[in-house]
């Protein structure tokens, strides 16, 4: 036997294969670890900030729930729930009116941009919509109080004269036009760009095969939109509406500068006796608040936080019901 044969290296054994069904852990690179850590940190920060805000609101609101309110200059002897009830009504009422007015307009504009307008015009309109979404609320408040409200007075008088039998348009018309309807219309103008931008992006995500199949079967443009685009975008439209509603619920300056508040609970839209939303009440009363009055206003902020959270949770529930609908089916 030769020396080379004696010193030959025996063939290496084949690599061990993991048992069937066992999970193989992939080796992570440095970039993967940095990215995953950053994403985890960002998500954790969101939860921490939300928890910190909730804890602050709860702790600072506790004095407002005490039984003895005689020394509270905001409550003036009444219970907290008696005080906050009309404010919750004003917040929800004005926001719902704004959403009812804004939703059809925003959906129509988004459909026109995504499926009807020429490409160049659609690009210009999309840019204008995005620009309107960035306008500060104080600008809308100045415009609504100084320009828009006086322009609406003749319309309010006509509605009262011709439709006064409807409870919404009954009562004595405000000579200044600073009513809950004016504030709601200003809110509608503010939330239209947000809802339009989201709906436009959702409409553009509709599978092209669905649209082409509807057109190939002889559907008109509107029938294609009704059968293919709107069902696909239903969840996105609900999300856009709820995001716009959240903006309307928390709006402060525009409503404060437009609305002549009185704290009443009424469904009349044209009179000077108007409900007061929570954000406007906090903005108006906070400069003079002290002691337990500050805690009372913070407690109303806690109620607004709960209402907004409930609205968003309801929206997520609606969207989750449509989660099974996708471009694949």
From TrEMBL:
It is a multi-pass membrane protein. One of its GO terms (molecular function) is phosphate transmembrane transporter activity. It is found in: Cell membrane. Keywords: Cell membrane, Membrane, Phosphate transport, Transmembrane, Transmembrane helix, Transport. The keyword Transmembrane helix applies. Coiled coil: none annotated. The chain crosses the membrane at residues 34-60, 80-113, 125-153, 180-203, 224-245, 297-319. Residues 1-10 have a biased composition (Low complexity). Pfam families: BPD_transp_1. GO terms for cellular component: plasma membrane. One of its GO terms (biological process) is phosphate ion transport. Residues 1-22 are annotated as: Disordered. Residues 88-315 form the ABC transmembrane type-1 domain. PANTHER family: PHOSPHATE TRANSPORT SYSTEM PERMEASE PROTEIN PST, PHOSPHATE TRANSPORT SYSTEM PERMEASE PROTEIN PSTC. Part of the binding-protein-dependent transport system for phosphate; probably responsible for the translocation of the substrate across the membrane. Belongs to the binding-protein-dependent transport system permease family. CysTW subfamily. This is Phosphate transport system permease protein. It comes from Microbacterium betulae. The gene is pstC.
